[in-house]
């Protein structure tokens, strides 16, 4: 008559056996025990039933039109290589646009026309101008954040082994730094500290790119990526850009 | 529209945006389902799928022609989901063993009377599993999902999540214990029993 088994298998041992983890010896020991122990066999059967039940969980479907929306989201963030884009960039420096918007913003803010509701009886023309300024500014800041996000994403994702990613980006980073400073000043004047802090953190990273060597060393790129990651910079830029887009500034 | 994924990747490598668009429109729904299992949040999932495509685009040069496109995208998506979890975990309360035991004994998922009809029961079990996955900590959910659904080994999961083997195992064990406790009211349906 066989001796009764006293050392039953644990949940953990059964689970590892289910997933075929552990050594061949471990598995053989579990198999041998199960052959002799009715109690452990029942436990094993129940555990497998639970794990099988997990497979019955409903699959969550994405929202309608998800594929189209996803393309709309990523398409502007993909690196642009078209010649016309390069020429346009050369003809119309973004810095000049940003500077114009910044001046417009500061002037309008100083005059108290943008961020305060107009008094009752204001002319329709005044309201139209205000709305236009708001839309213009919002679009520019959102665009600035998206371009910054695009650059951060490229820095984080670029494959260093097939080409240093920073060589051609210093001018772009310098452009973003200069524009960002204007927007940051405007945000601070408006008392929007969240955007101000974000733009400041962004600026610190972009300044490193703008002032760095054309051929960045791997360890410097790693450090830069770590900094972007530590500050959750891509995530924060994305969230703020989304808030601006959805709710306005 | 490119007929095969491989042809679309080959064209996308040359800078053809429409080819890349084909891939995005063909695989985004699948990637959403994969990533959602880990994040359990629609908005986070959308962000992770977006990151997946941006990373895939940046790594097109590394894609080997003989590899399977969907497998390649799945691997990138899981890595992006893990990166995302690392960020969200910083905002999540630390694991508290006392709370865990309390949850187990108090039945933190409300119980329902399991109905005899098999289809209804199957639906309720599926819903309960879904609800339980949602209630796991981010780490438990990630470790369990990667092991159970994606089929990664404990060693691979540990490396991906930055955990040692023991911590990875325990995350999976805790997830399974919670799942068993949550499914206990459906014992007839799934054969649950109390854990030891």
What is the end-to-end distance of chain B? 56 Å
Q: Write the element-wise H/E pattern of chain A from the N-terminal end onward.
A: HHHHHHHHHHH
Count of separate structural domains of chain A: 2
Query: Ends of chain A: how far apart?
Result: 81 Å
Question: Secondary-structure blueprint of this entry?
Answer:
The complex is a heterodimer of chains A (249) and B (196).
Chain A: H1 11-18, H2 24-36, H3 38-54, H4 66-74, H5 83-91, H6 94-110, H7 124-157, H8 170-190, H9 193-211, H10 218-230, H11 233-247
Helix pairs in contact in A: 1-3, 2-3, 6-7, 6-8, 7-8, 7-11, 8-9, 9-11
Chain B: H1 5-13, H2 17-39, H3 42-58, H4 69-89, H5 97-106, H6 118-135, H7 138-148, H8 154-161, H9 165-183, H10 187-190
Helix pairs in contact in B: 1-2, 2-3, 2-4, 3-4, 4-7, 6-9, 7-8, 7-9, 8-9
Could you characterize what this model shows?
The complex is a heterodimer of chains A (249) and B (196). Chain A is mainly α and 249 residues long. Chain A has two domains: 1-73, Arc Repressor Mutant, subunit A, CATH 1.10.10; 84-247, no CATH class. Chain A is 70% helix and 0% strand. Chain A contains eleven helices and no strands. Chain A has helices at 11-18, 24-36, 38-54, 66-74, 83-91, 94-110, 124-157, 170-190, 193-211, 218-230, 233-247. The radius of gyration of chain A is 29 Å and the shape is elongated. Mean pLDDT of chain A is 75; it is low at 82-92. Chain B has 196 residues and is mostly helical. Chain B has two domains: 5-89, RNA polymerase sigma factor, region 2, helix turn helix motif (Rna Polymerase Sigma Factor, Chain: A); 97-190, Arc Repressor Mutant, subunit A (Orthogonal Bundle), CATH 1.10.10. Helices cover 71% and strands 0% of the residues of chain B. The longest helix of chain B is centred in the N-terminal third of the chain and has 23 residues, at 17-39. Chain B is globular and about 55 Å long. Chain B starts with a helix and ends in a 6-residue tail after the last helix. The chains are: A mainly alpha (249), B mainly alpha (196). At the A-B interface, helix 1, helix 3, helix 4 and helix 7 of A face helix 2, helix 3, helix 6 and helix 9 of B.
